[in-house]
C-alpha cells in the first residue's frame, strides 16, 4: 500500500495533482460523451458530441439552417440529429407536440439558455424563460394583439402603404426595373418603427436604409452567437469581453440598438403620448398597448427597462420577418401567373369599387380571401425566416421524444425549415402550391401542426395576425394596382442566412399600371 505523507507534498505537487484531476475528469467526460451517453447514439458528426464548434462555425458562415438540413439529408430517415454536445434537432410531427405542445408532458419543456442572450434591459415576452413570467406577460399584452387592436393599428399600415405606393407609382410610370425587396425592407422598418417605437425612421420617404436596420441585424448576430455559448446568463457578458474586432463590432451595435429604444420611449413619455391621428383618435400603436398593459390578476404594469426590452425585441421580431415574407410572395406569384390571376380575380370581385388599388383595402374583408393567406403560409413553409430549431430544454428527468430518450437539460427542437419540407407530411414538398392548404384529401391537421413559420404552442408568435395583416394588405394592393413581373423570369432565388433567412441575391421586378379585368 502506498502511503502519502501529506506534510511532504509541496505547492508544485498540489498544483500538478489538481491539474491531473481536472485532465482526468475532462477525459472521462469526453469518453462518456463520445461513446456512453444516450445522446451518442443519435446520428451527427462525431465532433458535435464534444463541442458546439461546428454549429458556431455554421452560424458564423451564415448557413446554420442549411447545415442542420444537410445532417438530416446525410442520415436519411433519421428522426433526430445531433447538432451539439447538448443539442438535438428532430424532424417528426410527433416531436412538435412533445416539445412545443400544450400537453401535460410538453409543459415541462422550457425555453433553453439560448434565449438569455435576447434578454437585454429586461426579459421580454420573447426571451423570458420563466413559464410563470411568460404566462403573466402574455396575459398582460394579449389584448394588444386582439382583433380590436388590429383595427387600431390599421391606419398606420394604410398611411405607410400610401407612402410606399407613391414610390412604386414612380417605378411603374417609367417601367424601370428595381429591387422591390429593398423597398419592402424600408417599409417594414418604418411600419414597425411606427407600431413598436412610436415613430418611423422616414426611410420609405428618403429611399435610404436606416442605420437602425444594420444595428438590428448585428445585435441579432451577437445574440445568436452568445446563445450558443455554454455560460448561461453570463454568456452575453463573457462574449462582450472577447477582444476580437468582429465581436466588438456586434457588441457595440447591440448597445446602440438598445439606446435607440430608450430614446424612443423617453420621447414618448415626454410627449404625453397624445399624438393624434388624422382619424382624430389618440395614437394607439403596439407601444401604447405595452405601456398600458396591466396584469388582470395583480394590476402590475411594466417598468421602463422592461418596456425598453419589449419594444426593441418587437423590432427584431416583426421587421425583417415581414419583408422577407413579402419578398417570397412577390417571387412565387410572379413565377405562378395562374395563382396570381386567381387572386387578382378574387380581389376584383371582393373590391369592385377599388379595381386600381388606390383606396385602402380593409383587412376585415381581405382576411376572408383564403388563397392569398394560403400563399403567405406556403411561402413561410418553404422559407421560414427562422429556419433552425427554436430550442427547448428537456426536463431534469429527461424525456422520450418519438421513441428517443433524451437526458435532462438538453436543448431540443424542430427546425421549421426541415419539417416544412418533410415528404411524409407534404406531398411534393419542394413545390410552392398554396392549394395544398385547401386539399380535403390531405392530412391538413398534421400539415398545420408541422407548419412552424410562426412557431407552435404557448410561445408561438403573438404578432402573427399583425404580420398577416400588413403582408396581405401590401400584396393585395400591389396586385390590384400594378402588373408585376420579374425582370429575369428564369430567376431562381435561394436563401442566405443572416440571423434570419433572407433572399440570396438581389433581383429586380418591373411594375406597370394595371388595367382592371386584363388578367
Ligand atoms: C412574417 C412575420 C413573422 C414571423 C415569420 C414570425 C415568427 C415567429 C416565431 C417563429 C416565433 C416563435 C419563436 C419561439 O418559439 O421562440 C415568434 C414569436 C414572437 N413574435 Fe413573431 N414573427 C413574425 C412577425 C411578428 C410581428 C409583426 C410581431 C410584433 C408585432 C412579432 C412578435 C413576436 C413575439 C413578441 C414573439 C414571442 C411570443 C412569446 O414568446 O409569447 N412577430 N415569431
UniProtKB/TrEMBL annotation:
Cofactor: heme
Keywords: Heme, Iron, Membrane, Metal-binding, Monooxygenase, Oxidoreductase, Transmembrane, Transmembrane helix
TM segment ranges: 14-35
Record's keyword annotation contains Metal-binding: yes
GO molecular function, one term: monooxygenase activity
Top-rank lineage group of the source organism: Eukaryota
Pfam family of the protein (one): p450
Residues holding heme: 461
Alphabetical list of InterPro entries matching this protein: Cyt_P450, Cyt_P450_CS, Cyt_P450_E_grp-I, Cyt_P450_sf, Cytochrome_P450_monoxygenase
Family: Belongs to the cytochrome P450 family.
Designated name of the protein: Cytochrome P450
Amino acid at each position: 500500500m502506498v502511503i502519502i505523507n501529506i506534510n511532504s507534498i509541496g505547492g508544485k505537487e498540489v498544483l500538478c495533482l489538481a491539474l491531473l484531476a481536472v485532465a482526468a475528469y475532462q477525459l472521462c467526460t469526453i469518453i462518456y460523451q463520445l461513446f456512453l451517453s444516450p445522446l451518442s447514439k443519435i446520428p451527427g458528426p462525431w465532433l458535435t458530441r464534444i463541442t458546439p464548434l461546428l454549429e458556431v462555425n455554421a452560424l458564423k458562415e451564415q448557413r446554420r439552417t442549411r447545415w442542420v438540413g444537410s445532417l438530416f439529408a446525410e442520415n436519411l430517415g433519421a428522426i433526430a440529429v445531433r447538432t451539439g454536445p447538448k443539442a438535438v434537432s428532430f424532424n417528426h410531427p410527433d416531436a412538435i407536440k412533445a416539445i412545443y405542445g400544450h400537453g401535460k408532458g410538453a409543459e415541462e419543456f422550457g425555453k433553453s439558455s439560448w434565449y438569455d442572450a435576447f434578454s437585454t434591459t429586461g426579459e421580454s415576452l420573447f426571451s423570458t424563460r420563466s413559464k410563470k413570467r411568460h404566462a403573466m406577460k402574455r396575459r398582460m399584452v394579449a389584448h394588444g394583439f386582439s382583433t380590436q387592436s388590429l383595427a387600431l393599428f390599421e391606419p398606420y399600415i394604410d398611411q405607410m402603404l400610401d407612402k410606399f405606393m407613391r414610390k412604386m407609382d414612380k417605378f411603374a410610370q417609367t417601367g424601370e426595373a428595381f429591387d422591390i425587396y429593398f423597398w419592402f425592407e424600408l417599409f417594414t422598418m418604418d411600419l414597425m418603427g411606427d407600431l413598436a417605437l412610436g415613430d418611423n425612421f422616414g426611410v420609405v420617404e428618403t429611399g435610404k436604409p436606416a442605420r437602425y436596420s444594420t444595428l438590428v441585424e448585428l445585435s441579432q448576430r451577437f445574440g445568436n452567437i452568445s446563445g450558443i455559448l455554454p455560460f448561461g446568463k453570463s454568456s452575453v457578458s463573457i462574449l462582450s469581453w472577447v477582444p476580437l474586432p468582429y465581436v466588438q463590432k456586434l457588441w457595440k451595435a447591440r448597445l446602440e440598438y438598445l439606446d435607440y429604444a430608450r430614446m424612443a420611449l423617453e420621447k414618448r413619455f415626454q410627449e404625453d403620448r397624445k399624438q393624434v391621428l388624422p382619424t382624430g383618435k389618440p395614437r394607439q400603436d403596439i407601444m401604447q398597448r405595452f405601456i398600458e398593459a396591466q396584469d388582470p390578476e395583480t394590476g402590475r404594469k411594466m417598468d421602463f427597462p422592461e418596456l425598453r426590452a419589449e419594444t426593441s425585441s418587437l423590432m427584431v421580431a416583426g421587421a425583417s420577418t415581414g419583408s422577407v415574407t413579402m419578398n417570397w410572395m412577390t417571387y412565387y406569384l410572379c413565377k405562378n401567373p395562374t395563382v396570381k390571376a386567381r387572386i387578382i380575380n378574387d380581389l376584383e370581385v371582393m373590391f369592385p369599387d377599388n379595381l386600381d388599388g388606390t383606396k385602402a383595402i380593409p383587412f376585415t374583408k381581405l382576411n376572408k380571401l383564403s388563397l392569398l393567406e394560403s400563399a403567405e403560409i406556403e411561402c413561410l413553409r418553404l422559407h421560414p425566416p427562422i429556419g433552425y430549431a427554436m430550442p427547448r430544454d428537456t426536463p431534469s428527468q429527461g424525456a422520450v421524444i418519438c421513441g428517443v430518450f433524451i437526458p435532462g437539460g438538453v436543448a431540443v427542437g424542430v427546425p421549421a425549415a426541415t419539417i416544412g419540407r418533410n415528404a411524409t407530411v407534404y406531398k411534393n414538398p419542394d413545390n410552392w402550391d398554396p392549394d395544398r392548404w385547401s386539399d380535403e384529401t390531405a392530412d391538413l391537421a398534421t400539415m398545420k401542426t408541422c407548419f412552424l413559420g410562426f412557431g407552435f404552442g404557448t410561445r408561438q408568435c403573438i404578432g402573427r395576425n399583425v404580420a398577416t395583416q400588413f403582408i396581405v394588405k401590401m400584396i393585395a394592393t400591389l396586385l390590384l394596382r400594378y402588373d408585376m413581373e420579374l425582370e429575369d423570369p428564369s430567376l431562381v432565388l435561394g436563401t442566405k442566412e443572416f440571423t434570419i433567412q433572407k433572399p440570396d441575391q438581389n433581383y429586380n421586378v418591373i411594375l406597370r399600371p394595371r388595367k382592371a379585368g386584363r388578367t
